[in-house]
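Quick question: what would this complex look like in 3D?
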Amino acid sequence: HQEELEQFKTRDAVTVNGTKVTLRANIGLLSDVSIAQQFGAEGVGLYRTELPYMARASFPDRKTQYEIYRRVVEGFPSQSVTVRTLDIGGDKSLPYFDTPRELNPFLGWRSVRVSLDHRDMFRTQIEAILMAATHGNVKLMFPMVTTLDEVLACKMVVAEAKQNLMNEGWTIPDVPLGVMIEVPGAIAMATHFAKEVDFFALGTNDLIQYLLAADRGNSSVSHYYDSLHPAVLAAIAQTVATAKRCGKNLCICGEMASDPASFALLVGLGLREFSVSSPSIFALKALLSKLDIKTLQNVAEQAMAESSGARVRKLISEAFGQVP
Ligand code: PEP
Ligand code: MG
């Protein structure tokens, strides 16, 4: 079976009738780079930079960060690497960084909120990312934004970082800026964000937990955490429509995109850029190669009218048969 799937490594991800989608990789550690290459990922759609920070005993300095990012970027010479700034707090803490004890960490001081409260650390990270951008095709992305002020503040830090590097003699290329749409409130704000950024990335891992009030790491509510819940599909459809209206690229990088049945549904909902776990890439291409876009769109439309995730799941398995 694996050999059969191997043939998909160098093939495009296309439907029967030629609708092409882009399959990039989600990565965290340097070791993920060769895995992404092995599975023929078309670049990196989500580089979770917190992982190198978590694997250390203290904050890595700018040079150390630059060297790590540079190695990732050089791993994809003809493709883009979307680097996400530090996303700590919630379920991810740094042993050497003082994070307050909070009653609701996922609703608390996490992600870009932490970065904006530690400007020097944030600017240092952005400088390291911009330095790595001189070695390839980098996009820069901010997680968990909910307000326009945050987007503007992030852009200000990018401008400062650029200025610092220019003062040091660096020539920094223009790096596209994007924000993650991973809090329900960000969906309605996307029209405003679109005036300030170049692209969006749907982070369904967080979006689902916030939409359905079900902690993504709490097994006692895992049956409430349902990626095919009609409210989740409606939120995704709304984001797709907004991105299209605003003329912005939209990538989806939550785990659900790596699940073949959900992936098919997402293509039907209009998504064309995906960032997935590398080992899932062959199976996603194999499935897509058997389906046509009209069927996918019809199934997605029917799914949108269903009343539960279970019913959506049933609909998908009836429409696409046994998916891997
Ligand atoms: C997400 O929230 O969907 C996401 C891609 O980011 P993370 O899983 O790192 O929170
Ligand atoms: Mg997230």
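Answer marked as accepted. The first strand starts at residue 13 and ends at 14.
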